[in-house]
Design a protein that fits this description.
23% strand, single chain, 4 strands, alpha+beta
Length: 79
């Protein structure tokens, strides 16, 4: 997963790039009213996408082969 730096689209619209390799066919931009909102929405979307994948029986592995759990996502993203 890669979360990019938020960038301004218009005076009252920002976007934050998100790439979740293996989950989405391409990079997506999550939009918000300002940089902080765009970043927060992007992080929230990434977490929900990964949680959904895990609850549907998918597996996400750490580089050492250990599986992520819903609890480890809470540690990573907060509650």
């Amino acid at each position: 997963m890669r979360i990019g730096k938020p960038y301004m689209i218009a005076e009252t619209e920002w976007a934050c790039p998100l790439e979740i390799h293996g989950f989405e066919p391409r990079q997506v931009d999550i939009r918000g009213a300002d940089a902080l909102q765009a970043l927060g929405l992007t992080m929230s979307f990434a977490r929900k996408r990964m949680e959904h994948f895990l609850t549907m029986g998918g597996r996400i592995l750490y580089p050492d082969g250990e599986p992520y759990t819903l609890e480890s996502l809470q540690t990573l993203f907060g509650r």
